[in-house]
Amino acid sequence: MKTDIQIAQEAVMLPIKEVAQKAGIGEDDLELYGKYKAKLSDDFWDKIKDNEDGKLVLVTAINPTPAGEGKTTTTVGLGQAMAKLNKKAIIALREPSLGPCFGVKGGAAGGGYAQVVPMDDLNLHFTGDFHAITSANNLLAALLDNHIQQGNALQIDPRQVVWKRCLDMNDRVLRNIVVGLGKQSDGMVREDHFVITVASEIMAVLCLAENLADLKARLGRIIVAYTFSGEPVTADQLNATGAMAALLKDALKPNLIQTLEHTPALVHGGPFANIAHGCNSVRATRMALKMSDITITEAGFGADLGAEKFMDIKCRMAGLKPDAVVLVATVRALKYNGGVAKVDLGEENLEALKKGIVNLEKHIENIQKYGVPVVVTLNSFVTDTEAEYEYIKNFCEERGCEFALSEVWAKGGEGGIALAEKVLETLETKESHFHPLYEDDLSIKEKIEKIATEIYGARGVVYEPAAEKQIAKIESLGFAKFPVCMAKNQYSLSDDAKKLGRPENFDIHIREAYVSAGAGFVVVLTGAVMTMPGLPKTPAAFNIDVTDDGKIVGLF
């Protein structure tokens, strides 16, 4: 069987000019990055901004397992299937981070015959957006430390510097470091930290900004430190805003590539959903809505993370209203949630399926809390059985959900037609009554507790003393009305990755909270979640190489 990268590299791509033309984008509105990648010009938005919006479909999933779910694969395949049904559809995805590519998870281009291409370009440097974000983040860090070195006119307390440097790589030794060692001219000695680029507030700012003016306003509001008297210090006060915006000017423009079947795909921004807000850029989603009848977008990891943040952060800020949600699962992943070992997932086991399907049940209930119709789809495997399919289908229909089997990994768009038809039927017959989970005027703790109890199913919330103080400080600074961005492990509804299925009688433990004033939300860290991942004992990097003729191998 061919690998994903073999399938992608053997694909015959259309020049991106032709893909753009199919989507109604003229050559003058493209900024080309070679033959197969382009950015969309700022002028293009002015041409389409008055178009009527198409329908918005979100693709999300159950909690991820080692058995795999295939959320991005489903998103891509659904877009290809819509094209086969002669629907004008565009998919809107996030850009992959290098961290997972060289770590465990791999890239984010889809899989099998439902991929976006060029896959190797996308998973590596692409159009340089992540480089620009990393550079802007670290420029701000350099300006901050330079200000302290050059007399510290703002009276920044070096013990209260909250801005962290970033790198788009899994590198655990950078989580907690000391900078400024050496001579006096090498800066003030202080503790510092790194986050992975996808967790940088600048990533969130780029993804939520409406335009260049909004980008600059958000960058200027970023809080980098506090003074000796406890007052916040912003990027504007360090005179950093203009230079950061200059680095991000091109990164702000959405990227256009194609699927294996030449369906247009906007791929822009890439925050993780476990430690950030997990959605592609507002600009890309809005452009797709103006260009198509149906926009299909995805949000990272399970619906307890990506979908919650899509609804409560992205939709709230951008005024978006999803018309339907596709919830992805696999028989294998449901059996894994039911206690079956990974090596035994290929055997029919209805008892384990019944135990594990409670994870899917909770995600269905969560999406329904937002008033949006749900279509459940199963990413099919050859080891699945008809009895397992029938049980899941009945389970979903009893809960008011449409159900469809997806075979897009093996068959591309053709394998997604049944799903596409269910989505179209849902869009035509069921009305979305979308509303966020909580109101702006709730306190930060009330928002945290609403998410913890209603979305995760927690019994309650336990706050560490440091988190209590931080939340009180955030509210005293006037940020109480911000939505909250929960950082939590992706594998469980709880903050304990080992609690599979639908755990009960657990508490969510809050260890830290800080405000991302530029992004416009409060970040809340739960359990042991890390904002700078580490590499595993056998990283994926070990299998990646380049042949003598320049072809990349081993990427997945």
Cα Rg? 23 Å
End-to-end Cα distance, whole Å, is 14 Å
Regions with little confidence, pLDDT below 50 for 5+ residues: none
User: Can you count the helices?
Assistant: 19
Would you tell me the overall average pLDDT? 96
Helix proportion: 25-40%
Oligomerization state: single chain
Shape: globular
User: Main beta sheet: strand number and arrangement?
Assistant: 12 strands, mixed
What would you note in describing this structure?
With 556 residues, the chain is α/β, with parallel strands linked by helices. It has 19 helices and 25 strands. The strands form six sheets. Strands 1, 2, 3, 4, 5, 6, 14, 15, 16, 17, 18 and 19 form a twelve-stranded mixed beta sheet that branches. Helix 7 packs across helix 8 and helix 9 (212-221) packs across helix 10. The radius of gyration is 23 Å and the shape is globular. The two termini are 14 Å apart. The model has no long low-confidence stretch (mean pLDDT 96).
Q: Which features characterize this protein?
A:
556 residues; alpha/beta; four-stranded mixed sheet; 19 helices; 20% strand; globular
Short characterization:
It contains 19 helices and 25 strands. It has 556 residues and is α/β, with parallel strands linked by helices.
